[in-house]
Amino acid sequence: MEQSKQTIFVCDDNTDSCELIKMVFQLEGYKVTSCDNLQDCLSLARQNNFEAIILDNRFGQVSSLEACREIRGFNQTIPIIFYSGESRQSEIDKALKAGANAYLVKPNDFERLTKTVISLIKT
Questions:
Q1: Cα 83 from Cα 50, distance rounded (Å)
Q2: CA 58 to CA 79: how far, in whole Å?
Q3: pLDDT digits (tens, 9 = 90+) for 11-64
Q4: What CATH number has the domain bearing residue 23?
Q5: What's the start-to-end Cα distance of the chain, in Å?
Q6: Cα–Cα distances in Å, from 116 out to 21, 26, 50, 109?
Q7: Computed over its alpha carbons, how large is the radius of gyration of the chain?
Q8: Cα dihedral sign, 70-58-122-31
Q9: Using an 8 Å Cβ cutoff, are 100 and 79 in contact?
Q10: Are strands 7-11 and 31-35 parallel, antiparallel or unpaired?
Q11: What is the helix (H) or strand (E) element at residue 89, kind and residue range?
């Protein structure tokens, strides 16, 4: 599959963060689909064949852990990367236990985000 046809899915309720992530991956030649709520996230994840999913850890007071578990229920192989401002080790451990492939912290790990996603897609 050509890289330019691969689509990355970003689910983040912070518009600025979402737009920045979209821009970076578009510059790398990927298509990017995004949403800002977990209900749409699950619906779109079920209906599309994304190459990777980037999830924020929190949507207001709601955690993305259950969304991650649900996605793992119907797709065990898609890379799921949490990219969140939440940096507590306990939250990182919960995300990895829920099925995430990686957990990166905003904004410190931004440069690693692209490398991590591309690496996970290619494996």
A1: 17
A2: 19
A3: 999 999 999 999 999 999 999 999 999 889 999 999 999 999 999 998 877 789
A4: 3.40.50.2300
A5: 14
A6: 13, 16, 16, 10
A7: 13
A8: positive
A9: no
A10: parallel
A11: helix 89-98
Confidence of residue 77 (pLDDT cuts 50, 70, 90): very high
pLDDT surpasses 80 at 3? no
Instruction: Say how many domains are in the chain.
Output: 1
Per 3-state DSSP, the chain is made up of helix, strand and coil in percentages (nearest 5) of 50, 20, 30
Which 3 state secondary structure label does DSSP give 34? strand
The DSSP 8-state label assigned to residue 49 in this structure reads -
**pLDDT-based confidence at residue 72 (cuts at 50, 70, 90):** very high
Q: Could you tell me the strand order of the sheet in which 102-105 lies?
A: 31-35, 7-11, 52-55, 80-84, 102-105
Q: Tokens 């996230």 belong to which residue?
A: 41
* Dist CA 11 CA 34 (whole Å): 6
* Structural domain of 32: 3-122
pLDDT of residue 67: 92
Contact 102, 54 (CB under 8 A): no
Three-class DSSP category at 28: coil
